[in-house]
Amino acid sequence: MKSFFAVLHRDLLLAWRSRADLLIALAFFVIVASLFPFGVGAEPNQLRAIGPGVVWVAALLASLLALPRMFSQDHDSGVLEQLLLSPEPAVLWVAAKIAAHWLATGLPLVLISPLLGLMYGLDGASLAVLAASLALGTPILSLVGAIGAALTLGLRGAGSLLALLVLPLFVPVLVFGAGAVDAASAGMGVSAQFSLLGAGVLGAVALVPWACVAALRLACE
Amino acid sequence: MNIFRYSSPQTFYPLAGRMAPWFGVAAALCALAGLYLAFFAAPTDAVQGEVYRIIFIHVPAAWMSMFIYVVMAFWSAIGLGLGTRLSFYMTQALAPTGALFCFIALWTGALWGRPTWGAYWVWDARLTSQLLLQFLYFGFIGLTRSIEDPRRADRAGAIIALVGVVNVPIIYFSVKWWNTLHQGASVSMTKAPSMATTMLLGMLILAFAAWFYSLAVTLSRVRSIILERERHTDWAQSEIAEKGAAL
User: DSSP assignment of A173-196, as one string?
Assistant: First the structure.
């Protein structure tokens, strides 16, 4: 576990040192979410109805935008190869890199999401559910996205290819995440959606690092 | 006979060459028989009239598109597990046919939906998951085509095919669940199969036609892939020279 925390610490430190990049992704999230009223009109009831979906789609796109940076810098500088050559279990440090990536790019989205929900006129309970559903859902985005980021590492047109690869896989997260907020707004229970998102996180944590290591080994051959 | 004999591209190449025409003939015969049943023998549907005949193209295409993805995942798993090149070639030979059938299913579905539901597209669970399957096919093809190193392309494609096949049921159920939550079962495609025997027979024969067509096309495509990828070997070079001389 020492290598896990060492890589986690290093990646978080690197993220902090280049925090302008993270702020840009966050600004993208806010801008995308605030574009929709210009397109669909500012009618409050309509905005309240589409709010959860819009915030969730914006979060999806913002995390997609941040995905390439998960491995690309380390790939360019050769750190990734050294890590793969090291005797440390690769699954551990890959998991650490994904965790650090989520803490740096996913968590800020969760924290700022109630503000966006407020702009769409969601009530207090829905705002809490929105933040909670993003807190459960964005780790899945980072995990599943990590496979795509590893597979497209160093390719021409990696960005658009990454979108094509991972966005279809993000659909279930979007369905359950936005569905939870919709259910909360309608006064229904949200435990089903939260259980499914939680199951998604656990399943992804169990399976993704292995696939990701295999993809990274391919990219570094 | 050792079945693993044919896991080598060199021995599989002539075998595929011998099998492909037969599957092609079988596909043509099944298609003729099936289309005759579909357009001349099958009775007009009591509810939908003549338009229901799209089912004869639509359902075999949809079955095939889903089945081919599973077969791709199967060969990917074999390829990653045993390291056999031919498995990866098969995966890549299957993908365009799967994408084609997926597209046919979506297109005929839209043409069918317009007269029966009054809209080319509804956000029904099946339609939506079929659309996402199309994206999975495009993603696979896009990824394998944009990696220049063939070995990495093979394995990266195999990984994404396996990730996709794990996700297909999740996507299907999530979309189904989302749909029922939003608009209820206003459009249900899961009505009881109260079909006349000729209709069912025609559909099954056309499904076989789709199977044989996929086999024939995949085998010919895998032959091209084998030649392209094994071009550094002596046997492939002599084969290419022979084909070149024949032209």
Answer: HHHHHHHHHHHHHTT---HHHHHH
Indicate the pLDDT class of residue B183, thresholds 50, 70 and 90.
very low
Structural domain total, chain B? 1
* Complex prediction ipTM: 0.87
Full domain range(s) for residue B236: 10-185+192-242
**In contact, B147 and B156? CB cutoff 8 Å:** yes
Range of the domain at A134: 2-219
B3 in a structural domain: no
CB–CB contact A161 B181 (8 Å): no
CB A140 within 8 A of CB A197: yes
Residues from chain B that touch A164, judged by Cβ atoms under 8 A, are 135, 138-139, 142
- The answer to whether position B247 is within a domain reads no
- Give phi and psi for B196, each to the nearest 5: -70, 155
User: Cβ of B159 and A152 within 8 Å?
Assistant: no
Asked whether residue B4 is assigned to any structural domain, the reply reads: no
Using an 8 Å Cβ cutoff, are A61 and A79 in contact? Answer: no
CB of A202 within 8 Å of any CB in chain B? Answer: no
What is the DSSP track for A121-169?
A: T--HHHHHHHHHHHHHHHHHHHHHHHHHHHHTTT-TTHHHHHHHHHHHH
Whether residues B143 and A165 touch (CB distance < 8 A) is answered with yes
Distance CA B46, CA A27 (A): 57
Q: Which long-range contacts (CB under 8 A, 24 or more apart) does A187-190 make?
A: A190/A129, A190/A133
Q: Name the range with the highest mean pLDDT among A184-188, B189-193, B228-232.
A: B228-232
Judge whether A71 and A149 are in contact, CB under 8 Å.
Answer: yes
Side-chain-facing half-sphere of A12: CA atoms under 13 Å: 13
Kindly give the confidence (pLDDT) of every residue in chain A, 221 residues in length, as a single tens digit, with 9 standing for 90 and above: 888 899 899 999 999 998 888 899 899 999 999 999 899 888 888 888 889 999 999 999 999 999 988 998 888 898 889 988 988 889 999 999 999 999 999 999 999 999 999 999 888 889 999 999 999 999 999 999 999 999 999 888 888 899 999 999 999 899 899 989 988 888 888 888 899 999 999 999 999 999 999 999 988 87
Per-residue pLDDT averaged across B84-88, rounded? 91
- DSSP reduced 3-state for A76: helix
Residue A187: C-alpha distances to residues A113, A126, B35, B213 (Å): 20, 9, 53, 52
Q: What is the pTM of this model?
A: 0.89
C-alpha–C-alpha distance, residues A147 and A191, integer Å: 28
Q: Is residue B198 part of a domain?
A: yes
- Number of domains within chain A: 1
Most A CBs within 10 Å: which of B136, B168, B177, as the mutation test of the A interface?
Answer: B177
